[in-house]
C-alpha cells in the first residue's frame, strides 16, 4: 500500500495570543492549570495507538455511523503561502521505494482545551481555547520496517507563517514565535509551521483533546511505567513506589503531567515519560492483541474518536483503518522516540531555540526516509548475502536460531504468475537447512509484495530466521497469514525469481543517527521494556 493514505486528527484552537501557561515559565503550576497538561498527552498517545496502530474490525450499521460521525475533519494546510511554494527552498519531496510506496509523515498534536463536561471536570475549569501542548512528528518508512517519533518542545522558538483559519480569519506571520502559537490559526497552520521549520513534507495530522483519557486508559487495563525512586508529587498528585507500577485513569494522567517528580523538573525531561508510556502502550496492545478483539476494538475506537480531529482526506473510519493496516507492519523494536535537541533562547531563558546542526541531521534523515534505528555498522553495510545463522534482526542483534534448529512447518505460497515459484523457494529453504519447508499455490497470482507471516508469537523467531535466509527486509515479517502453517512465506511479484530477495533498489536505506544527535535527543526504543524515568 502506498503512503498516500493515512490518518490523524485535528485540534481545538487556542487563543490568538498563544500565551503560555505558568508551567511554560518554569514556575509553580496551579492545580487546575497543571491538570490540563495531563489529558493532552494521554489522548495524543492513546488515541494514536487506537486509531493508527488500529484494528481490522469490520464496522457496520450503528457503530460505523457513530464512530464515523465522531471523527472531525479540518484542512491539512493553513498558510497563505504553503512551505512547498516558498522561494526559500521549500520541502524535501519524498521518493517512492522500489514498489511505489511512499513514507508517511504524521504530525500529532495534543491540545489542552477544556470543554464543558468531563473535560472541565478533569481540568478543574472551562477553557475552550487550547494550545498545542504536545507535538510529535511521526515518520513511517516506505517499507514499513521502522518509525521515528520526534517530540517537538512546545516552547521552541521558530518562524510562524501567515495563515488563514477555516473561518477566513487572517493571522500575521511571526519572524519568531513559540511553535505552539500557530494553532491559533488552526491545525493546518501548525502543520505548515512544522513543515517550514523542518523541511519535512507532512502527509496528515491528528489532533486530540483530553476528554475520555480516564475511560480509555481504564479500557486497556492500565499501562506499566517505571521510576527510579518513589515519587510523591502534591502538584500532580502522582504517588508511585520505586520500580514498575501499573497506572490507570487519573494516575496515568498524573504520571504524564508531573514536573517536579522527575529529575530536572522541566517540560523537556517530561517527554521521556511520554515516550515510556507510549512504548508501554504499544507493546501491551500488540502483545495482548487488544485491537484484534472486535468488541474491545470497537469500544476503544468509540472512546478515542470522540476527541479526534484529522485532516479532511482521512476523516472517516475507512481511511483511518487503511492507515492502521499499513502502520501495523512496523515492528515495535523499530519504533524510536527522540526529543528534538535544543539550546537556550537568549532573549528569554524560559524558551528554547533549535540546535540547528543536530536538528538538521535528524530532519534530513526523516526527509530522505532513513531509519534512525539502524546501528552504526549497518550504515555502510555490504549488500552481500548475510549468513542465515548470523543475520541482523530489526534492532541489529543477531538471531539465535540456526535454520536446522527451526522445526516449525514453513509453507511457501506462490502469489506470482511464475509457475512452480513456491516449490523453487521451498527447495532453496530446505537446502539452507530448513527441513520442514514445502511449496503450494495461492488463491491470487497478483500479490505485489512478499511477506512472511507467523501465526502465533512463539513462531516469530522462526519467521525472522526464514526472512533473513531469503534476505527479505525486516518489515516483511508480521503476524497473521491464513493459518495454514506456523510460518507462511507469501511470495509476491517483487520476488518472482532468484534464490534471495534482490529488489531493484533499497526501499528504506538504514542510516545511523549521528552519535551527538542521538545523545542529545535521548533516543529510546518502543521495544525497550527496561526504560525507567529518573526521579528526583
How would you describe this protein?
This protein has two domains: 22-220 and 266-376 and 512-525, 3-Layer(aba) Sandwich (Aminopeptidase); 403-495, Alpha-Beta Plaits (2-Layer Sandwich). It has 13 helices and 23 strands. The two termini are 46 Å apart. The strands form seven sheets. It has an eight-stranded mixed β-sheet, sandwiched between helices. The chain has a five-stranded mixed β-sheet with strand order 19-18-22-20-21, with helices on one face. It is α/β, with parallel strands linked by helices and 536 residues long.
Distance between the termini: 46 Å
CATH topology of the largest domain: Aminopeptidase
The residue-averaged pLDDT reads 73
Work out the count of structural domains.
2
Number of strands: 23
Enumerate how many helices there are, as a single number: 13
CATH superfamily label of the largest domain: LCP protein
Strand content: 15-25%
Which CATH architecture of the largest domain? 3-Layer(aba) Sandwich
Largest sheet: 8 strands, mixed
Query: What is the C-alpha radius of gyration, as a whole number of Å?
Result: 23 Å
From the spread of the alpha carbons, the general shape counts as: globular
> What top-tier CATH class of the largest domain fits best?
Alpha Beta
Low-confidence stretches: 1-59, 116-129, 374-399, 504-512
The helix content, as a percent range, equals 25-40%
Amino acid at each position: 500500500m502506498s503512503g498516500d493514505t493515512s490518518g490523524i486528527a485535528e485540534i481545538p484552537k487556542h487563543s490568538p495570543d498563544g500565551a503560555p501557561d505558568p508551567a511554560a515559565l518554569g514556575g509553580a503550576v496551579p492545580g487546575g492549570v497543571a491538570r490540563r497538561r495531563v489529558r493532552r498527552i494521554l489522548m495524543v498517545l492513546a488515541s494514536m495507538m487506537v486509531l493508527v496502530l488500529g484494528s481490522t474490525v469490520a464496522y457496520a450499521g450503528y457503530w460505523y455511523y457513530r464512530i464515523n460521525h465522531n471523527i472531525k475533519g479540518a484542512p491539512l494546510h493553513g498558510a497563505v503561502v504553503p512551505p512547498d511554494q516558498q522561494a526559500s527552498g521549500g520541502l524535501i519531496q519524498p521518493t517512492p521505494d522500489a514498489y511505489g510506496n511512499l513514507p508517511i509523515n504524521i504530525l500529532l498534536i495534543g491540545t489542552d482545551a477544556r470543554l464543558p463536561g468531563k473535560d472541565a471536570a478533569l481540568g478543574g475549569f472551562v477553557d475552550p481555547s487550547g494550545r498545542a501542548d504536545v507535538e510529535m512528528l511521526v515518520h513511517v518508512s516506505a517499507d514499513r520496517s521502522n518509525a521515528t517519533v520526534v517530540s517537538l518542545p512546545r516552547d521552541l522558538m521558530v518562524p510562524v507563517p501567515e495563515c488563514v483559519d477555516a473561518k477566513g480569519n487572517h493571522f500575521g506571520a511571526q519572524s519568531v514565535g513559540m511553535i505552539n502559537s500557530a494553532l491559533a490559526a488552526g491545525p493546518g497552520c501548525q502543520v505548515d509551521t512544522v513543515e517550514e521549520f523542518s523541511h519535512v513534507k507532512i502527509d496528515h495530522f491528528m489532533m486530540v483533546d483530553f476528554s475520555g483519557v480516564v475511560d480509555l486508559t481504564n479500557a486497556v487495563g492500565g499501562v506499566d511505567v517505571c521510576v527510579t525512586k518513589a515519587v510523591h508529587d502534591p502538584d500532580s498528585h502522582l504517588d508511585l513506589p520505586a520500580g514498575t507500577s501499573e497506572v490507570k485513569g487519573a494516575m496515568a494522567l498524573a504520571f504524564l503531567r508531573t514536573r517536579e517528580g522527575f529529575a530536572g523538573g522541566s517540560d523537556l525531561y517530561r517527554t521521556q515519560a511520554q515516550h515510556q508510556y507510549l512504548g508501554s502502550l504499544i507493546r501491551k496492545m500488540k502483545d495482548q492483541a487488544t485491537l484484534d478483539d472486535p468488541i474491545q476494538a470497537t469500544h476503544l475506537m468509540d472512546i478515542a474518536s470522540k476527541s479526534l480531529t484529522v485532516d479532511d482526506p482521512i476523516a472517516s473510519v475507512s481511511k483511518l483503518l487503511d492507515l492502521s493496516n499499513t502502520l501495523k507492519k512496523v515492528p515495535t523494536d523499530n519504533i524510536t522516540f527522540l526529543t528534538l535537541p535544543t539550546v537556550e533562547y537568549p532573549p528569554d531563558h524560559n524558551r528554547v531555540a533549535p540546535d540547528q546542526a543536530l536538528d538538521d541531521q535528524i530532519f534530513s534523515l526523516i526527509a530522505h526516509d532513513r531509519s534512525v534505528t539502524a546501528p552504526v555498522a549497518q550504515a555502510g553495510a555490504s549488500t552481500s548475502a548475510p549468513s542465515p545463522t548470523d543475520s541482523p534482526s530489526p534492532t541489529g542483534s543477531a538471531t539465535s536460531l540456526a535454520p536446522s534448529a527451526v522445526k516449525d512447518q514453513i509453507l511457501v505460497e506462490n502469489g506470482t504468475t511464475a509457475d512452480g515459484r513456491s516449490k523453487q523457494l521451498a527447495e532453496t529453504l530446505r537446502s539452507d537447512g530448513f527441513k520442514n519447508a514445502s511449496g503450494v499455490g495461492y488463491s491470487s497470482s497478483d500479490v505485489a509484495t512478499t511477506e512472511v507471516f507467523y501465526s502465533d508469537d512463539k513462531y516469530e523467531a522462526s519467521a525472522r530466521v526464514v526472512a533473513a535466509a531469503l534476505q527479505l527486509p525486516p518489515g516483511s515479517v508480521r503476524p497473521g497469514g491464513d493459518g495454514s502453517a506456523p510460518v507462511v512465506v507469501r511470495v509476491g511479484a517483487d520476488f518472482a525469481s532468484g534464490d534471495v530477495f534482490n529488489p531493484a533498489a533499497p526501499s528504506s536505506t538504514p542510516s545511523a543517527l549521528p552519535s551527538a544527535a542521538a545523545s542529545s535527543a535521548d533516543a529510546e526504543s518502543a521495544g525497550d521494556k527496561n526504560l525507567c524515568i529518573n526521579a528526583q
